């Protein structure tokens, strides 16, 4: 059989988690919380299951959840979103990204992505017959050179994918970035896919600059979000996509044949959570900033250079002073010899830059972070 994705194998997340389990290492590699989903949300899920709310939901999502998403957007970003026509509930953010990419990508189209990039973008583009055009960002700042982006745009360019707060660099886009992006997409009639799954996790009192805040930019955009990241329930695979009505029509044409609809009792539980427990969303940044600061302080005596984390629940470490190994080999050494599982950044690049940087996930209990830091400080 001829593979449609011949260059893809096991993901780095599966590989490192497998090694962590094999060697009994502390797993700071895969990005999932070590702590549990809020009790209120778990109770509401169980209640709806017991009530028999277990059949198909409307393909676009149940109306109460769509309405609560619209209210959340209004409260957080001062944007007015029509719940019926613009909000689609999906089976995780990865499904939303896949469907958005498939909705607009035609054979021969080029989609600009920024490396290090979340690893689902490129396969989705290629399955649609398109080509991912990579712009490599470098440590320590991982800043976008918009002049370079402009040079790459041609008559085949269809869209630009952005991710803020950014996984894996833990950087956030600034107002100047969104201004440059808007100028390019309007000038060249492009679309934007804005991956904002860590939208509620920004640090040092810096607001998340969502595409939803800018009406002109939003008119050309799909904005993707994740309940899993917000409510510590990554295993539920619940997300959503917000897009203008004309784009949502195309998005839903594909969505109905990918998953049709998403986990019904979870939709009702999430609607209740948003309606009654809004403080959880508002406190999320402070919650994760405390964990970031805890890990950074515990690593202060190490030989790693800790790069600033502006958002997400990831922290980057430059290990240049410790080893000449490439980052994949260094991560294998860490998990086998030191007992720490981390993620190498080079796997998120089409053409790696040679930076010696690894990613840690700090969505863990404090004792786990301190135990990991103790091991890393011994290097």
From TrEMBL:
One of its GO terms (molecular function) is pyridoxal phosphate binding. The keyword Transferase applies. Its cofactor is pyridoxal 5'-phosphate. Residues 26-374 form the Aminotransferase class I/classII large domain. It holds the Pfam family Aminotran_1_2. The keyword Transferase applies. Keywords: Aminotransferase, Pyridoxal phosphate, Transferase. PANTHER family: FI04487P (PTHR43807:SF20). This is Aminotransferase. It comes from Pseudoalteromonas citrea.
């Amino acid at each position: 059989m001829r593979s449609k994705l011949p260059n893809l194998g096991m993901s780095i997340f599966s590989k490192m988690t497998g090694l962590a389990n094999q060697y009994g290492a502390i797993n700071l590699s895969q990005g999932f919380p070590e702590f549990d989903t809020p009790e209120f949300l778990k109770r509401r899920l169980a209640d709806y299951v017991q009530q028999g709310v277990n059949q198909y939901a409307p393909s676009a999502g149940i109306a109460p959840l769509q309405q609560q998403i619209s209210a959340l957007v209004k409260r957080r970003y001062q944007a007015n979103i029509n719940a019926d026509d613009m909000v689609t509930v999906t089976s995780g953010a990865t499904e939303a990204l896949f469907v958005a990419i498939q909705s607009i990508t035609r054979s021969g189209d080029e989609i600009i992505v920024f490396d290090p990039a979340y690893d689902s973008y490129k396969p989705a583009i290629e399955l649609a017959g398109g080509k991912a055009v990579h712009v490599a960002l470098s440590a320590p700042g991982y800043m976008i050179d918009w002049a370079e982006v402009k040079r790459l745009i041609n008559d085949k360019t269809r869209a630009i994918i952005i991710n803020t707060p950014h996984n894996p660099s833990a950087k956030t886009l600034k107002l100047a970035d969104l201004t440059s992006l808007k100028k390019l997409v309007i000038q060249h009639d492009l679309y934007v896919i804005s991956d904002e799954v860590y939208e509620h996790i920004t640090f040092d009192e810096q607001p998340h600059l969502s595409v939803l805040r800018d009406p002109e930019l939003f008119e050309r955009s799909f904005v993707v979000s994740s309940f899993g990241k917000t409510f510590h329930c990554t295993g539920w695979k619940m997300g959503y996509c917000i897009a203008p009505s004309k784009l949502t029509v195309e998005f839903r044409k594909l969505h109905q044949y990918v998953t049709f609809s998403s986990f019904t009792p979870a939709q009702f539980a999430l609607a209740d959570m948003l309606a009654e427990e809004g403080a959880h969303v508002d406190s999320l940044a402070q919650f994760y900033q405390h964990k970031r600061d805890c890990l950074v302080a515990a690593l202060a005596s190490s030989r790693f250079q800790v790069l600033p984390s502006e958002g997400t629940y990831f922290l980057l470490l430059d290990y240049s002073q410790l080893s000449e190994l490439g980052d994949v080999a260094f991560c294998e050494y860490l998990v086998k010899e030191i007992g720490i599982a981390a993620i190498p950044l080079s796997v998120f690049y089409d053409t790696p830059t040679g930076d010696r940087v690894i990613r840690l996930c700090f969505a863990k209990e404090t004792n786990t972070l301190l135990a990991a830091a103790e091991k890393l400080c011994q290097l």
